[in-house]
Design brief:
Layout: H1 32-42, E1 55-64, E2 83-92, E3 107-115, E4 118-125, H2 138-145, H3 156-164, H4 170-176, E5 191-192, E6 197-200, E7 206-215, H5 224-233, H6 237-247, E8 253-262, H7 263-268, E9 288-297, H8 302-307, E10 320-321, H9 326-342, H10 419-427, H11 430-443, H12 449-462, H13 464-475
Length: about 475
């Protein structure tokens, strides 16, 4: 028999009866194990993620199938056949942790690759674009997706008010209210890095890159009516589908592909290649095969392995870097900052977040500092005279040309927010367009007329057919 103990290892003699002052008396403060049990229960939940609170995850691998070493020196892509372990978390964006899976929302698509050069985190969505391109607007946008402070309910008015005043959102909202805005589950969606990242090769040349993950399971979606039936029966429909598929060895797979743009091409491209509301034309920059992602193992403890998992685009490896994408640069700060608040200062010491290679740094003290930080002779500073870890200039990235004055530039000036949504709309079938019109109209329930009119004016700039279709659906 295993001995029950306190967290300090002290044996417990009675775990059934509190220590009281007499048989009917009050409990005593000296019943330290009672206090320990209650205090631990109070802390069994950590603050949920402000965004992407509801998610599912699993382990898997990336297997390289194509040589892209002319673009990047990253070891993860060093040879065909190379396999790298990974963790993936796919989530809804707006809902709380208890929200239903089958809701119309963007899905977060985050992957942690455990490489021998450290963890590489690719943090994107199931859409190639986003609602905004400037991080100044991100907290405001997220506030429109959360509960109204007075009613404590989600507000259609708030989100459409924001979107109607932010024409850069047209591309993403067209996707959100299309059939793809409500996936049937997590296996039947594509994933995207969404942002523009950088590759650096062995010759220290830089390329700009977009990441794509094309589902081998095919795209499957639901209508609002179908989703309502699913939610009424199972609020964890996506979680159940992913877990059971892996348990049954029906391992989901995605083909990893990239688009690559040279620095010279970026300077002359018709769109800002670092604008998160824009895509790169596949005709101009064709997809290049990289490898296959497979999910093949479920976690054993969801809290330890998924709830405490922490992804950040700041986790890069030699050969892969960031870009001037404003949203990406802000996320490189805000994600680890959120993790330090939610999990603790040394959140990357948690087993699920630990890299597989040796870690050496001079971070000291603070919460969650429970692992053995390798420090020579107690040295906690650098430079030092005691053989402590040092930087290596071979990992420096090439210089990035910067031009222009420091200023707050109005991104709406001479910015085309209509062509790409128009191109997407024109690719839709008649049925897909009708779904789009109906989904938008349903979402505008209760929204004041002046806000709807303002949004209709934006749709007119995309296409008269687009605007007229939404108007007809609203009349119905």
């Amino acid at each position: 028999m295993k001995q029950l103990t306190t967290t300090a290892g002290n044996p417990v003699g009675d775990n059934q009866n509190s220590l009281t002052a007499g048989e009917r008396g009050p409990v005593l403060m000296q019943d330290y194990y009672l206090i320990e049990k209650l205090a631990n229960q109070n802390r069994e939940r950590i603050p949920e993620r402000t965004v992407h609170a509801k998610g599912s995850g699993a382990y898997g691998t990336l297997r390289v199938t194509n040589d892209i070493t002319k673009y990047t020196k990253a070891d993860i892509f060093s040879y065909i056949g190379k396999e790298t372990p990974l963790l993936i978390r796919i989530s809804t964006v707006a809902g709380e942790k208890g929200a239903a899976d089958a809701e119309r929302d963007v899905r977060g698509f985050a992957i942690k690759f455990y490489t021998k050069e450290g963890n590489w985190d690719l943090v994107g969505n199931n859409t190639p674009v986003f609602f905004i391109s400037d991080p100044y607007k991100f907290p405001d946008f997220i506030h429109t997706q959360k509960r109204d402070p007075r009613t404590n309910m989600r507000s259609n008015t708030a989100q459409w008010d924001f979107w109607s005043l932010s024409p850069e959102s047209l591309h993403q909202t067209t996707i959100l209210f299309s059939d793809r805005g409500l996936p049937s589950d997590l296996r039947h969606i594509n994933g995207y890095g969404s942002h523009t990242y950088s590759f650096i090769n062995k010759d220290n040349e830089r390329f700009w890159v977009k990441f794509h993950f094309k589902t081998r399971q095919g795209i499957k979606t639901m209508t609002n009516e179908e989703a309502a039936i699913v939610v009424s029966k199972d609020r964890e429909s996506s979680q159940r589908d992913l877990f059971e598929a892996i348990e049954n060895k029906n391992f989901p797979k995605w083909d990893m592909k990239i688009q690559v743009m040279s620095e010279t091409e970026a300077k002359n491209y018709k769109y800002n290649p670092f604008d998160l509301t824009k895509v790169w034309s596949h005709k101009d920059f064709p997809l290049i095969d990289v490898g296959v992602v497979e999910l093949n193992r479920n976690p054993n403890n969801y809290f330890n392995e998924i709830e405490q998992s922490a992804f950040s685009p700041s986790n890069t490896v030699p050969g892969i870097g960031l870009s001037p994408d404003k949203m990406l640069q802000a996320r490189a700060f805000s994600y680890p900052d959120a993790h330090r608040y939610r999990l603790g200062t040394h959140y990357e010491m948690l087993p699920i977040n630990q890299p597989v290679n040796e870690v050496n740094n001079y971070h000291a003290d603070g919460s969650m500092n429970f692992s053995d930080i390798k420090q020579e002779s107690g040295v906690k500073y650098e430079p030092n005279s005691f053989n402590g870890p040092k930087e290596n200039p071979i990992y420096k990235e090439p210089s990035l040309e910067i031009f222009g004055d420091a200023d707050r530039y109005d991104r709406t000036l001479d910015n085309d927010y209509f062509t790409q949504p128009r191109d997407l709309f024109n690719l839709m079938s008649k049925d897909q367009k009708n779904q789009l019109f109906g989904n938008i109209a349903a979402s505008m329930s209760g929204v004041p007329k002046e806000i709807i009119d303002r949004q209709m004016a934006l749709y007119e700039k995309i296409s008269t057919e687009y605007a007229d279709g939404v108007k007809r659906a609203l009349d119905v």
